[in-house]
């Protein structure tokens, strides 16, 4: 039986350490192979994680489009359309752009957090497994 201090510390920390209680069932060789394959392909996942980082550039391009659309549409449609309607539509376009720009900024922050956590996971996995050589080791 455990001592009183051990039980108290276990209760305070409420942590289970590797190899302690609730042991997971042994992995089959097929499961190990799938795990090693996933670790070996970890850097391929990074390509997908880092691929969505261009939203700020898209926002800048859209800003130019909105500015030019506003100027050209008002100039070109002076005699064809009701100016009030055109102005209202351009105001809606400007508001939609502001929402896009704000959301792109928020997504950029989230993207940075996502990339950081991906890198952290990679560093920890790399301590225990050679990412590029995980499959080679398993095959040997």
Mind explaining what this structure looks like?
The chain is mainly alpha-helical and 140 residues long. The chain has one domain. The protein is 75% helix and 0% strand. The chain is built from 6 helices and no strands. Helix 3 runs antiparallel to helix 5 and helix 4 runs antiparallel to helix 5. The two termini are 43 Å apart.
- Radius of gyration (CA) equals 28 Å
**Overall pLDDT, averaged?**
76
**Percentage of residues in strands:** under 5%
- Give the helix/strand class: mainly alpha
Low-confidence runs (pLDDT<50, min 5 residues)?
134-140
Distance between the termini: 43 Å
**Overall morphology:** elongated
- DSSP helix fraction: over 70%
Q: What's the tally of helices?
A: 6
Q: Tell me the major beta sheet.
A: none
Task: Please provide a brief summary of the model.
The chain has one domain. Helix content is 75%, strand content 0%.
